[in-house]
Amino acid sequence: MRLDGVDVLAVYRGGDWIKFYVTGEADDAQTEAAVKLLPTFEDFFTIENVLEVKNAPISVERFPERMTISTPNTRAEIQLMKGKNGKPIKIENLPAPDFPAPPLRDHTQYRTVVLKHDAEDKQFEYTGTNGFTARIEAAAPPGG
């Protein structure tokens, strides 16, 4: 099954609970596969903590120095963090396959301008926290 173009936004609070929003165009099988794949990237994406899996529109806007990601209940705006000589702070060429998980290869550091989740059952709002974007590479094992 192909997951190309399937976006997933994981909204969570301190590992206590997680909600997954999956691209509205994803079918049931793609949605299930994408959510099952996430715990291989981060330990705190455990299925036991999932409160909701919902297909919803996900908007991602990329600009040279910031990015916004939103769903009907969540909005994140992150600002690129710069280091020496005004260049983005990046961690590249991580020593795969052991750190931190094979699919996470390169990280770019951001700080939150706003991170807000306002749903009927859960709410939070933060600013100034750390965040990162990462390129993810994943494929089924041969014959899998």
Structure in a nutshell:
With 144 residues, this protein is mostly beta strands. It contains 1 helix and 10 strands, in the order E-E-H-E-E-E-E-E-E-E-E.
Radius of gyration: 16 Å
Structural class: mainly beta
Number of individual domains:
1
Shape: globular
Along the chain, the helix and strand elements come as: EEHEEEEEEEE
Q: Quote the beta fraction.
A: over 45%
- What kind of sheet is the major sheet? 7 strands, antiparallel
The total of helices stands at: 1
Low-confidence stretches: none
Share of helix among residues? under 10%
Mean pLDDT: 80
Q: What is the rounded distance between the termini?
A: 10 Å
DSSP summary, beta strand count: 10
